[in-house]
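Researcher: For the record, we're logging two predictions in this thread. I'll number them. Prediction 1 follows.
Model: Prediction 1, sequence and structure:
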Amino acid sequence: MIHSLNGLRILNTRPKAQAEILTQYLVDAGGIVIECPTIAIKETDSTWVSTLPDLAKIHHAIFISPNAAHFCFKQLKSNHISWPPHINVIAIGQATANALKEHHLLCNDIPPFPNSEHLLTLKSLKHLDHQTVLLFKGKGGRDLIEECLSKRGATVLVQSIYERAMPKIDPLLIQTIWQNDQVDIILLTSEQSIHNLFALFGKDALQWLQSKTFLVISERLAQSASLFGIQKIVKSHPERMINTLFDYSQGLIHDPK
């Protein structure tokens, strides 16, 4: 059980909707949190619904994030489209599965680690000849899932239903954070969040950012962070971030030298 983060000062860079839930957990656990979303999530227009295939002919549906789940079912409900029970529903992680549950949909498959590589190891996605996969995701990003499933014989239909954008952050807030050295550790959950973080803080804050400890949620993200000159990197499973922060605050995890 987490007793206290001992006043660990944390910069939460998650998008606004996801940040609020995580921030509350961290504050309840004794952390001091500053929210500075480095990505803004915007729903695309609803025209994608007109290109939605006949759901009766879909074998598998993959939801790549909680946003994909919420925006999908928001539009399905608005357009009175029912979700058929025969579809094998796959969530990229537990957070996405929880989002689907809010829409009364249970997942049949969840990978052990919430990323594309582990999702592609699922048994249900190994042999896909003559099967159709519907993928709900955001605009842009990696094409790994589509490419791999197509090579396995699937017909992959992609619905890009939200997009990521640079958020508008008060420059005074950013200046105050780094000039007063208000955080001990920075949470990063995506590659785009790294790019946006450095862009938002600017060149004057470069050395300060590079001196900070960063908590990341994958080896790939750790490698991306190192390209920005970040040397103090702590890796965590996405669903164990609070426990990892607790270990860090207790001195059980040390900054790499």
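Researcher: Logged. Prediction 2.
Model: Prediction 2, sequence and structure:
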Amino acid sequence: MSDLSRRHLLAGTAIAAVGAALPPQAARAAAPQSGQQGPGFYRFKIGDYEVTAINDGTWYRKLDASFVRNAELPDVQKALADAFLPTDVVPIPFTTLMVNTGSKLIALDTGTGGMMAAGPAPQSGTFAGNLAAAGIDPKSVDAIYISHFHPDHINGIKGKDNALFFPNASINVPEAEWSFWMDDGNMTRAPEAAQGSFKNARRIFGDIAGKVQRFTPGKEVEPGIASIAAPGHTPGHTAYSIANGNKSMLYVADATNNPWLFVRNPTWQAVFDADGNKAAETRKMLLDRAAADKMLAHGYHWPFPASGYITKTAKGYDLVPAMWSPSL
């Protein structure tokens, strides 16, 4: 043994002996646990446009054999396990987008209005608090563009007092969605499971029908924001692209639900899809576009902040979450 090694060994032995001779020290009190998350908002840029993702909580839907119509439950559970997710529930987050073009502030969908309370906590209803934390006053929103009429996308148009949450915003909806959901004949013929969505559409839009502007997807609805017909999930389901400078983004809305199920397995049909075959066709069209153009993509039900890039795989596609950035 070298002299240096012997000196280190002797010094270590001496320190250990002194430590053993000292009286035991009282343990320091542990810091209290917070028990809650911080505000859920995240900003990024698309060219000169500033986009803010606003989290509205997560619904933990109980998984059963009906959730994916054309896949066996064990295959669905394996897909969840492969993504390190629980196999008895499906996490379904809600994340809206606020687009500040420099001249207008635009909301793409409006969240749940805190009315998606089924299942274990945490639940929806964090949108208003997170919007405030992001420094956005609802009165400053100029326009709302809706992707489709499911409650988790339109309920935030109104507060629980039935007053408009964004009092100064124009409300813009796809024509096909309005025609389908506001038709009394369709409501009469709809299965019991869909009756709630028909009634909810009337609750939201019935007394403000005169304020609601309808458009046909396939054109620019605001400078740099274009609407894209994306039917299947609902008859008039609509996606949006955002482009400014040399940057672009694709808001696929509900073309996919949980990405580890429906991005990786694009032919799977979710129980929420009105036309499963059409939904799968639309899903592949949008994912192909995002992958080919290397666009940033945003899915309403993807893990917060719900944005990333789409790559093609031998089986389908995969989501590569965007890297978090401390600066815009």
